[in-house]
Amino acid sequence: MSAVRWRRLFCGSAGVLAALALVVYFRGSLPGEPAVYDAILAWASPLMVTVFHKINYLGDKRVILPGALLLLWVAPRNDRRRWWLWGGVMIGAPILEWLGKELIGRPRPGGTSFGFPSGHAAAASAYFFLAAYLVGKRLDRPGARVVLLWVAAAVLVVLAGLARIVLQAHWPGDALAGAVLGLACVSLAAWYHERRELLS
Questions:
Q1: Is 34 exposed, middle or buried (0-12, 13-18, 19+ CB in 10 A)?
Q2: Beta-bridge mates of residue 200
Q3: CA-to-CA distance for 71 and 127, rounded, in angstroms?
Q4: How much is the pLDDT for 61?
Q5: pTM for the full model?
Q6: Residue 69 — very low, low, confident or very high, per pLDDT cuts 50/70/90?
Q7: Number of structural domains the chain divides into
Q8: Dihedral angle computed from the Cα positions of residues 111, 112, 118 and 123, in that order, rounded to the nearest 10 degrees
Q9: Spacing of C-alpha 129 from chain mean position
Q10: Domain range for residue 137?
């Protein structure tokens, strides 16, 4: 993907995140969000809840941190020189997530601590989309395999966000905002990286 496309993806994802934040800040919730939340909880059987307890680790810092170090190791040699950029994605996403929680101030479904955006969803999104980008760059011939990488990353991000809803830790909008935040961080880094590659 060219630098221009990464710029568009960043602008689009950042715009969606800003729109979600404004709606939640001024309305308290997204349209239909409580109904979606109730439907997901009604769908989740006790067995599903047990499964989603395991899936929840997809966005856990204890899994993401060693995973990020592994990701830097498997990154293409030429891209490893910008390790600070990829590390910045993994550090920047949680900082922006914390800042969002403080600015929006929306409580979680079961408690008073803030939940918008979801930290688990943001971490999973930043990690898995960054993995798709860096691993995709290692492939000799981009195409169907790269698309498959991005689809697999998106499925894992959706599962991580869904786990937060099933476990009653976040509203659906929190999980969606976390996923979009992670994507915005990755697309911003990819945009910068691709522009520098063109100039060098």
A1: middle
A2: none
A3: 9
A4: 86
A5: 0.92
A6: confident
A7: 1
A8: -100
A9: 7
A10: 3-199
Q: Which residue has the higher pLDDT, 85 or 99?
A: 99
Long-range interactions of 80-86: CB distance < 8 A, separation 24+: 82/193, 82/196, 85/189, 85/192, 85/193, 86/130, 86/134, 86/189
Mean pLDDT of the chain: 91
Using N-to-C axis directions, what is the helix angle for 144-166 and 172-199, rounded to 10°? 150
Tokens 């979009």 sit on residue: 180
Mind spelling out the 3-state secondary structure of the chain? CCHHHHHHHHHHHHHHHHHHHHHHHHHCCCCCHHHHHHHHHHHCCHHHHHHHHHHHHHHCHHHHHHHHHHHHHHCCHHHHCCHHHHHHHHHHHHHHHHHHHHHHCCECCCCCCECCCCHHHHHHHHHHHHHHHHHHHHCCCCCHHHHHHHHHHHHHHHHHHHHHHHCCCCCHHHHHHHHHHHHHHHHHHHHHHHHHHHHC
The identity of residue 192, as a single letter, is: Y
Mean pLDDT of 162-174: 96
The token duo for 29 is 């919730």
